[in-house]
Amino acid sequence: VLCFTGGHTTEILRLLSCLSESYSPRHYVLADSDKMSEAKIRSFEQKRAETFSESQFSLDRIPRSREVRQSWTSSVLTTLYSILYSLPLTYKRKPDLILCNGPGTCVPVCLSAFLLGLLRIKRTIIVYVESICRVETLSLSGKILYYFSDYFIVQWPDLKKKYPKSVYLGRIV
Amino acid sequence: FRFKDSLAEDLQGADLVISHAGAGSCLETLEKGKPLIVVINDKLMDNHQLELAKQLHRDGYVLYCNCSTLVETLQSMDLSALKPFPPGQPEKFASFLDKVFGLQ
Prior knowledge:
- The complex is a heterodimer of chains A (173) and B (104).
- By secondary structure, chain A is α/β, with parallel strands linked by helices.
- Chain A has a single domain, classed as Glycogen Phosphorylase B (Rossmann fold), CATH 3.40.50.2000.
- Helices cover 42% and strands 17% of the residues of chain A.
- Chain A has 6 helices and 7 strands.
- Chain A has helices spanning 7-16, 36-51, 72-93, 106-118, 140-145, 157-162; strands at residues 2-4, 26-31, 57-62, 97-100, 125-129, 151-154, 167-168.
- The radius of gyration of chain A is 15 Å and the shape is globular.
- By secondary structure, chain B is α/β, with parallel strands linked by helices.
- Helices cover 40% and strands 12% of the residues of chain B.
- In chain B, strands 1-2-3 form a 3-stranded parallel sheet, covered by helices on one side.
- In chain B, strand 1 (17-20), helix 2 and strand 2 (36-40) form a beta-alpha-beta unit.
- The relative contact order of chain B is 0.14.
- Classes of the chains: A alpha/beta (173), B alpha/beta (104).
- Chain A binds chain B through residues 6-11, 14-20, 22-23, 35-36, 39-40, 43, 68-69, 97, 125, 127, 129, 131-137, 139, 151, 153, 156, 167, 169-173, and chain B through 3, 5, 21-25, 27-28, 43-46, 48-49, 51-52, 54-55, 88-94, 96-98, 100-101, 103.
């Protein structure tokens, strides 16, 4: 299960580019306001299907939990709404792995999976890769998911120093 | 342009790219080996785009400025001083995940 919007999509598809077919089926989760990501994903999966004939994927949409420049108070409300919306989706898919890289939309999905883990319904490994844009500071999603993810990956050494529990693999996109 | 699927063709034909500091835009441009001037959007929340532009500039890969200094930058730029940009390594990420799931 993967979630992203806009520029994050390009990054996450690069992350996926070297994954083997063990990471299948892939369920993509998009914000309902995102128009361009769907095209990028379909194109990516189409190319993939040329090499791996049994490639499977699906696309789900959830309400975007935060718009750019949205105020803090309304962000909390829309995020709560998104968590409620995500729970049935996460419950239905019961992913083994959630991979995300930063847009606010991914926080409710990850938190809903974390919750399902606490309730012993499904233990999902949450892998968060902070965007390459983040050199010195974490995004808001990153700051939250640093505590909820199983593996938190950063792409610049300054962040590794500031967030010692993170994993630094160099630039991976 | 808003709904174009890919700017790859346009990028290929360009001699100079002026772009916002979005990761996709910067990386795609740098990977095609095109000289890049990054313009920062002052209105985005906490302006995180600035970090990447600054780092890429520090490492010598791009020029950067904001909307008001663009003309000045264009007038005084030296594109030959820009360094070639090494690609990222998603295979390291795949390798890492494989280890996590015991697939290696």
